[in-house]
Amino acid sequence: MRQDSRLSRMLHVLIHMGQHDGAMTSDMIARMLDANPVVIRRTMAGLRENGYVRSEKGHGGGWTLARPLDELTLLDIHRAVGEPSIFALGPAYDMPGCPIEKAVNATLKDVFADAEQLLLKRFAGVTLADIARGFTSPSGTAKDERCAS
Fold it and tell me: Which keywords does this Swiss-Prot/TrEMBL entry list (predicted)?
């Protein structure tokens, strides 16, 4: 099963935006993520609708943060990118009449729900500024020659 990387990719973008002077265009972001600018605009629109980024059209336009990194949590961004499934694991419904399959599925649903609530609670306690503090360069910025921003 393919992993959903929207959360990770948008955290990457937003932290770059927090370190970048001026707006970042969809093309700049797309090059950084090796993605299509249309996909970037669609994803960024969800962040804009939640008040996390702004967009300006025209020359010199692009995307900027609407809130500082210390006011954005992992949970905020997780929700803004559509609340992708936390787990790739799930119950099987191959034999709906089997009491063992029903018991397994009921247990898995409960365990996954508990684990998801714990993870979402942890997401709420981590800001993007917390992540950004973990990798600033000696000059105090997150600039890195491996990223194309």
Answer: Plasmid
